[in-house]
Amino acid sequence: MTSETAQAQAGVGRLGLCAGCAHYPALLEAGRCTPGDACIRAHSGRQIDRFLRQNREQADNYLADIFWERRAIAARYATVDRIFSLKTDPDEVVRRVVASRLPATQLDSMLRDPDREVRLSVAARLPEQLLHRLLDDPDYLIRATVARRLPHGQLSRLLKDPEREVRKIVASRLPSFALHRLADDPEPEVRAIVGERALPELAARLLDDSEWWVRLAAVGSAPIAALAPLLADPEGEVRDAVRARLNANTPSPTQENRS
């Protein structure tokens, strides 16, 4: 017996963890577990994780453990085909691990999980053709995740979402020719995104917006001919942006002579 093993076993009585352990003494003598540091029987997530990281082949044996954290950590290392039964585990942390590991095509039964973090994992990984099933999720973060992934042709289904942050994502992803559908959004933050990405005709319309930062956003997309009235805009940043764009489009004397 090595001195290291002797020292580890000397700690067994003090910690009381190895008594009755199915892995004692084989894994201890092999240096694959250490009382107080890497131990499956500890009530410490770090120690359990260290043990299963070194002994992945043991993870399947702890998927039905009475301790929720041991099940959750075991689910990280277990073979995927053994964790399907944990989709309905009573603990949400376990279900979060499962949602992050199952094949994306097997997540549909977790769409209505009561835990938001589980549904976030599902929304981030669900096949695109199934994302529409989360459009009415009560949590806006889920709908925002859907908005980031939804095919462009389906984004119109979120145009009237009650949450501003969701509509901002939609405005940032809609094709430019469809942005007119959000040009009258009640939130200026949404209209500003529209103004920044709009085609010239729509951007010119937004130069008259009541909020100055919407007008500012539209300056870069609007036709040059529509900008002159904003040289008298009450907001200095808008006037500066207009002057900068007009100057950038005014040919220098050298350029005129060359022409």
UniProtKB/TrEMBL annotation:
InterPro entries: ARM-like (IPR011989), ARM-type_fold (IPR016024), LRR_variant (IPR004830), LRV_FeS (IPR008665). It comes from the Bacteria. Residues 18-60 form the LRV FeS4 cluster domain. This is Leucine rich repeat (LRR) protein.
